[in-house]
User: Fold Glutathione S-transferase family protein from Kribbella sandramycini.
Amino acid sequence: MRRAQFVAESGSNGEWKRQGNRFTGRISRAATSSPGEGPDDQGRWPVEPGRYRLVVSLACPWAHRAVIVRRLLGLDDAIGLAVVDPIRDERGWRFTLDPGSRDPVLGIEYLSEAYRRTDPAYDGRVTVPAIVDTTTGLVVTNDYPQITLDLSTEWTDHHRPGAPQLVPADRAEMDTLIDDIYRDVNNGVYRCGFATGQEAYEAAYDALFARLDLLEQRLADRAYLLGDELREVDIRLFTTLVRFDAVYHGHFKCNRNKLTEFPNLWAYARRLYQLPAFGETVDFDQIKRHYYVTHDTINPTGIVPKGPDPAVWLG
Assistant:
């Protein structure tokens, strides 16, 4: 068996098995806690503008979702944003982009400090996005699928006028599509890239492109995945698509097709890129430096490719 990038998340057959989310508290309108208090007996924290800090990496697709949703909904003033360095060292995500290499609000150098403060015994991988409570320094959640849904459904009193309804009243079709896209595409590219066995890699590869083929067909007659309205599922697919040719095609060996070779998916991704909150939150430099420098078992030289030219997204 070849050496894994993340040993604890590699199965015996060489399959990549993503770790679970350790912190699953929720910021909810239903919380019985008063402003300034901690979670209630059901783990629900109060909705309180100015209290929480969303910690992200601009390189990370899971974190990028939260950045886009926060911007679309107009929550910039309600929820603070902290951006970590795209290059992790042995202690994890670093605040080296800030003066003094510390987050100016949380006062910490590494996101792992907030993780350990919340759970001193935690020994898993420190991940973004994470929402940290600025009053206690504790991690509220790193449950990335729920974070964006809650921004839509629990923070409605603080949305900007005219904010899109990203979560439809009837979620059944969207939730099924979200699950399929997560399994085969969002996480599928990682199952390709982090596989340490040929069979595991090929199974993930086949599932990835089978799903992309279906999505290509689906987008033949509609602007968005669920029709004429932008939804949460579009954001989740976009953050993988925008990284596809720059990273996943080569670095993760997802090389049957480039995104630019799927006519409908490419046109769809470019339409999204033109929307406020999408293209303006994409940082190809940070994306490429994170993947090609941090994953030293996959790219031991640490060389970052010059291409592709990001101008193709605007042409």
In short: The chain has two domains: 22-158, 172-313. The mean pLDDT is 95. The longest strand covers residues 52-56. Residues 22-158 form a domain with the Glutaredoxin fold (CATH 3.40.30.10).
